[in-house]
Structure formats: C-alpha cells, structure tokens
Amino acid sequence: MSVTIEEIAGEVITRAGDTKRFLIAIAGPPGAGKSTMADNLADALRARGETAEVLPMDGFHMDNAVLSERGLLARKGVPESFDVRGFLDIIRAVRPADQEVLIPVFDRFREIAIASARVVSPEHRFIIVEGNYLLLSQGKWAELEGIFDYSIMLAPPIEVLEERLLARWRGYNLTEEQASAKVNGNDLPNGRLILENRRRADVTLEIA
Predict the structure, then answer these.
(1) What are the DSSP calls for 20-33, one per residue?
(2) 34 backbone dihedrals φ, ψ, rounded to 5°
(3) Per the structure, how many domains does the chain have?
(4) Is the pTM of this model over 0.90?
(5) What does the alpha-carbon distance between residue 104 and residue 115 come to, in Å, rounded to a whole number?
(6) SS3 state at 78
(7) Which residue from 132, 135, 130 is spatially nearest to 199, judged by alpha carbons?
(8) What are 35-70's pLDDT values in tens digits?
(9) CATH of the domain at 37
C-alpha cells in the first residue's frame, strides 16, 4: 500500500473528529523508519493547526546495568529488554488527556534512557507513539490491543532493513564486523519476530 504523510494526517484528523485525545501507533522492525515517520507526521499535523507530540517506546529500554545482570545486554532490543509495565502505565496515563505526563527519551549515542525528558500535556491532541512492539501479539505487549485509535505498521523487506541497519551501526563508528554482528545477531531476528507476530494495523507500508 502506498500513502503519503499528508494523506495519513488528513485521515487521522477526520477519524479524531472532536475528540480531545487521539493515539496513533507507528510500529515496525528496527530500521523501518518509525521515528522519522513519527516526526514527519507530527509536523504535518501541526501544519494543519493541530497539536501533536511524539512518545517513543525506546525511552523504556532497561538500563545496561540491569540488562547485564539479566544476561540480556548483548540482546538489547528484544521484547523482554524493555520496561513494559512502565510503558503501559505511561500509555494509560496519557490516554485520557487529563494531566501532564513526563516521559523518558532514549539517547542512542550514550545508550541510556533520559527520565522526564519530554512533556505530554493535556493540550496535545494527537499523541504519536512509535516503537518496535506496539502491535506485537505476544506477552504483556498484547495488552496494548485496543488502546490505539489508529495504527500504522512499517514492514520493509528484510534486505532493505539489513541495508539500513548496517548503515546505522556504521554511523556509530562500529567496524564492519561489529555492525554485522549487531544486525544479524539481534536486529534482524527481532525484526522477523515483529513481522511474524503482529496484530492487524489500519495501514501497512513497506516504505515509510
């Protein structure tokens, strides 16, 4: 399916009607383009006079020290390496638009989550939640079913994901061997898990 950001912005505004809070999920494998699409959609909504904020799931990565204790550091990014309960609590707090909610944001350069780094206020009508496991049908992630008003699944071909992910890790000054180990040992297996165990989305796109 091919659809533009402008078309999606128009669709969600129509669906939102006069509701005070509208939650949009952008899900997909690592490297699918979720964060870029979320920022672009927020900009498109603001250009139409709407208020929007992005809520990234990556802010709920467990700290490296905790992952190390659990033997998960090398597999950072798998479903169990996130604070799912904390994420669910935040989404449920954001849902009614009756209070200010402070959310964490992940700093990829330092590999840590920064607490209370972004504010979701009651005035933000559209909240764009982006992350790998928003439509995952397994574990506690399945508790997100029904909470989003509109969902987008980004599902590029595996070869496209591999190319993008290798470029990402090279950008962090990893060697070719290190980048390949990250991609093939962790990112792509996570990507396949997401693509093979996803709930139905309102829109599914191969290219963001």
Answers:
(1) S-EEEEEE-STTS-
(2) -65, -50
(3) 1
(4) yes
(5) 4
(6) coil
(7) 135
(8) 999 999 999 999 999 999 999 999 999 999 999 999
(9) 3.40.50.300
* C-alpha pair distances (Å), 197 with each of 55, 85, 120, 135, 137: 23, 20, 30, 8, 6
The encoded tokens of residue 114 equal: 């920064």
DSSP bridge partners of 198? 136
Write the secondary structure of 133-156 as one string of H (helix), E (strand) and C (coil).
Answer: CCCECCHHHHHHCCCCCEEEEECC
pLDDT, one tens digit per residue, over 116-164 is: 999 999 999 999 999 999 999 999 999 999 999 999 999 999 999 999 9
The whole domain housing 157 covers: 5-205
Question: Pick from 97, 99, 204: which is nearest to 150 by CA?
Answer: 204
Burial group, residue 153, by CB count within 10 angstroms (0-12, 13-18, 19+): buried
